[in-house]
Amino acid sequence: MVGATYALVLYCGHQIVTGINYMILCEQRLSDMDQTKHLVKMITHVFMGECKIVFVEQMI
């Protein structure tokens, strides 16, 4: 999400595929007037030193 920042809350685990997928819970802070916060589940993929966010889902 453009303008959002993420802070790690909990490392949940990883899966080895072509690279490594990590699942983490993060605090998402939006860049709106209220600095809205959400707890989100994030999946990242790391392959050959490159990290990409592939999935973000709002939990709370």
Q: How would you describe what is shown here?
A:
The protein is an all-beta fold and 60 residues long. Helices cover 0% and strands 73% of the residues. The protein has no helices and four strands. The chain has a four-stranded antiparallel sheet with strand order 1-2-3-4, with no helix packed on it. A hairpin with a 1-residue loop joins strand 1 and strand 2. It is elongated and about 40 Å long. The mean pLDDT is 93.
Task: Give a quick set of tags describing it.
60 residues; single chain; four-stranded antiparallel β-sheet; 0% helix
Largest sheet: 4 strands, antiparallel
Ends: how far apart?
16 Å
- Class computed from helices, strands and strand pairing: mainly beta
Number of beta strands: 4
Mean pLDDT: 93
Radius of gyration: 12 Å
Strand order of the largest sheet: 1-2-3-4
Helical fraction: under 10%
Series of H and E elements:
EEEE
What does this entry show, briefly?
With 60 residues, this protein is mostly beta strands. The chain has strands at 5-17, 19-29, 37-47, 50-58.
